[in-house]
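I am writing to request your help with a piece of structural work I have in hand. What I wish to show you is a protein chain and, alongside it, a tokenised description of its three-dimensional fold. Could you please explain, in whatever detail you think fit, how the structure tokens follow from the sequence? You will find the record immediately after this paragraph.
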Amino acid sequence: MPTPHGPRRARIAFSESAAKQLDAITSEAELHALDRALVVISVDPDVGEPFPGDSTGPRLRQYVDDVERVRLLYWVSALRTVVVVAFIEV
């Protein structure tokens, strides 16, 4: 019997700098585009490409949506239940 709610999504959290970037967005179109990108990474945290760099800290990933013109840098918690957004570009 299929589950009535579909697959479980990861919870989205924002770093302090990403929260400040989020507060600075005033355009309704940019908020809509960002919301769509956040849904994508919450459903499939592996959708982004590994971000090149040092591997001593959390492994950053980059998700780019060229249609919506959104770029997110994020990392995924060890249990894959939380996606922490570190940088937002809309």
User: Anything to note?
Assistant: The mean pLDDT is 88.
